[in-house]
Amino acid sequence: MVDELWPLDGARQVDDELERFYAFPEQLERPWVRVNFVSSLDGAVTVKGSSRGLSAPVDQRVLGLIRDLSDVVLVGVGTALIEGYRGIKRTEVRAERRERHGLSEIPPIALVTAHASVPLDSPLLTDTVVPPIVLTTEAAPAQRRAELADAGADVVVTGDAEVDLRVALDALAERGLRRIGCEGGPRLFGSLIDQDLVDELCLTLSPVLASGDASRIAVGSGVETPRSMRLDSVLHAESLLLLRYARMRG
């Protein structure tokens, strides 16, 4: 379906329509991974090293909604640090929406980092209501893992030298976190594709041409057979296209 949600009669109508478009499946019995990215028309995932140059208020509104509907926000530590992540804040709208959907008041952020490389003074630790989950490995320095735990993080060892994403997703599910909103970066997305762990891709096409040497939205080892996806919805607003694809599984 193709719909234009702006302009509508009011902000509440927009929010209601967006919730319908981005609702997770009911009664999940396994982790459901929804990946959200913004890209330029020519495939750049960043402008001058950050996605901010591609984003717009409409896209940010959808990003916030996807966070509101997720049990947990999954992100690679490099992306989190480059983009200046901090703990997700409580708002009245977020609290009301999440209560209505039976979710906790604020979703935690789960950081994928093989070496537990989260600075102890990061806002992810110092400016958050809900402590982050650090998905790391045995190879990460034991002292750093202990320091992160002392700083309040939920540190989870999910592999030997590399984060085993299946183990990581299972660890989140064990914590009741099955609705997973993944915000990248490209290497994490590529690894999820390689292991066939992506259930949905929400892709915003920003109406700009960026050129340059920016990465594509997914960087991985590659798959022998590309993963087939089904276009579930298309929204357009202010020359942006907001696409939602679902994985076609046999």
UniProtKB/TrEMBL annotation:
The keyword Oxidoreductase applies. Pathway: Cofactor biosynthesis; riboflavin biosynthesis. Transmembrane segments: none annotated. One of its GO terms (biological process) is riboflavin biosynthetic process. InterPro entries: DHFR-like_dom_sf, RibDG_C, Riboflavin_Biosynth_HTPR. GO terms for molecular function: 5-amino-6-(5-phosphoribosylamino)uracil reductase activity. Pfam families: RibD_C. Residues 31-234 form the Bacterial bifunctional deaminase-reductase C-terminal domain. Keywords: NADP, Oxidoreductase. This is 5-amino-6-(5-phosphoribosylamino)uracil reductase. It comes from Saccharopolyspora kobensis.
